[in-house]
Specification:
single chain; 236 residues; alpha/beta; D-Maltodextrin-Binding Protein, domain 2; 5-stranded mixed sheet; 10 helices; 38% helix; 25% strand
Length: 236
């Protein structure tokens, strides 16, 4: 890894945040940003496999688990943001009513196709949606309509919707907002919502742990929190 860089491995929901903050991160750390994104479960595996990075941003549960296993430095654990799930449709398409659990259920059943992340290995939103479909009693009715994104930057649900391969998409709001050619409808109704907290940490094998700590500290500033909120996340 280039010693003039600060390397970040982060959940895909943080991609827009880091793209916006990259120039300011260089000012805060004295190093250029080198960032790689993917579903939290994949980031966790990369760190567990020994990939070097100065900062990791994972689900809070995964970060705490990795701290207990000595993969990240426990004192560096810092809550960064919370992520909720939302709905998007094709650009210019009518926006369905998703204001209640019953309305959301009706919108799913009325849609000809619905894109979500794969339930296994592509992010927590896909697993949550699979659970919701079962709880709403419509898993069987929806099976033939579902389109699955692989997760990560190239597997965003919004890209499936933007290509016209699905009428409606459900994923983390920040990931939906990262795709420009779709219309955001709104968050899932509270009764069906899943909020995922994200935590930053310095990996135990960080080449530049001090730069990692500086970057994490910057992510807690008012300036960074404004960008986090604008991306569709809730600052911690």
């Amino acid at each position: 890894m280039n010693e003039a860089e600060v390397k970040v491995l982060a959940t895909t929901a943080m991609k827009t945040v880091f793209e916006e903050l990259a120039p300011r991160i260089q000012g805060a750390t004295g190093r250029r940003l080198s960032a790689s994104f993917g579903p939290s479960v994949q980031i966790e595996k990369r760190i567990a496999d020994g990939e070097a990075a100065d900062v990791a941003i994972l689900t809070s549960a995964a970060a705490k688990d990795m701290a207990e296993r000595g993969r990240v430095l426990a004192p560096s654990l810092t809550d960064i943001a919370r992520s909720s799930l939302g709905v998007a449709v094709q650009r210019g398409a009518p926006k369905p009513d998703i204001s209640s659990a019953d309305a959301f259920k009706a919108a799913l059943l009325a849609a000809k196709s619905v894109a979500v992340s794969k339930p296994v290995g592509a992010g927590l939103s896909g697993a949550h949606m699979a659970k919701l479909l079962r709880e709403l009693g419509i898993a069987e009715a929806m099976a033939a309509k579902m389109k699955y994104g692989a997760g990560g930057v190239t597997g965003l649900v919004g890209l499936i919707v933007a290509r016209g391969e699905a009428e409606m998409g459900v994923q983390q709001i920040a990931e939906l907002k990262a795709v420009p050619d779709i219309d955001f409808v709104g968050p899932l109704p509270p009764a069906l919502q899943a909020v995922t907290p994200f935590t930053a940490a310095v990996p135990a094998n960080a080449p530049s742990p001090e730069a990692g700590r500086k970057l994490i500290a910057f992510l807690t500033t008012t300036e960074a929190k404004r960008v986090i909120e604008a991306s569709g996340l809730e600052p911690a």
